[in-house]
Design goal:
- By secondary structure, the protein is an alpha/beta fold.
- Helix 9 runs antiparallel to helix 10.
- The longest helix is centred in the last third of the chain and has 34 residues.
- About 50% of the residues lie in helices and about 15% in strands.
- It folds into two domains: about 220 residues, Spore Coat Polysaccharide Biosynthesis Protein SpsA, Chain A (Alpha-Beta Complex), CATH 3.90.550; about 70 residues.
- The protein contains ten helices and eight strands.
- The protein binds uridine-5'-diphosphate and magnesium ion.
Length: about 325
Amino acid sequence: MYSQPTLNVVIPVYREGNHLNVVIQEVIAALEKVTNKESYQIILIDDGSPDNTWDVIKQISQDYPILKAVRLSRNFGKECALCAGLEMAKGDAVIIMDGDLQHPPHLIPEMVSIWQKSDADIVEAIKISRGNESFSSKIGAEIFYAILNQLSGYNLKGASDYKLLDRKVVNAWLRMGERNLFFRGMTAWLGFQRIKIPFEVASRISGRSRWSTLNLMKLAITGVTSFSSLPLHLITFSGCLFLTFAIILGLQTLFFKLTGRSVDGFTTVILLLLIIGSLIMISLGIIGLYLARIYEEVKCRPRYIISEIIDEM
Ligand code: UDP
Ligand code: MG
């Protein structure tokens, strides 16, 4: 289809300075199996790392002119860093991968040849095992994907951010203007022809994962709230359910009152108060979640701010 397709590899990095050199070498080695020097470019996004990551990037970029790098003004989170990378990438296909070798670069040639030989627009690597993750994060991921699947209909189980996107997919992705980004979900929403290839998540080359439990929970809430408004409808549903109970209980109370058999009913009152009280609080919380999303969106702030750029080409 393309005479000489150009490839971009986008890697968001946060505190990956210690091993970035090795990562870049492996990625280049993988890329050179399928393409020549003129037709690929690696784009690194330093997501406001407080360590030596940016210095390392500056140093590596002197050895590798195919490197383009952006430094964000602070830590905006992986999703925003990815967005910065996708906006920079101008190639015919863009590969997104992590900067810790957990997404094995040796899959790149396979991804590229599938993209060239089939009519797939997205080649996605699917985790067949989650690597050595803690039991709680495995369970957390299971529950999150099960809920998301129920609510939104997108089955993202095993999905990773390791993907090859065709230019038209990247262009479509960039048209999505939301501030609360959930990359995996957004690419699922886009549709297009996709082919999945399985992979085993490798161990981190060094350092540790920078996703805190709080950040993962935030991402999970973004995932659910931006792909389904069902929780809001559940509130209405539980309201209707309680109305039915209220009518039955009300009629019974009236009946006892009129027939002079009024019960003391203290327990019932307390129980109802507690149940209805907590349901109202939860409902307000759910509405609050959506309201907060709307507030963040209407502010229309940029998704990231760039402080420095290295572009040798
Ligand atoms: N990352 C980022 N910003 C952050 C946290 C992580 O750009 O605030 C990058 C990180 O450098 C890595 C990728 O996102 O390339 C995945 O992060 P990590 O390995 O910490 O997460 P995990 O593998 O546990 O999902
Ligand atoms: Mg990782």
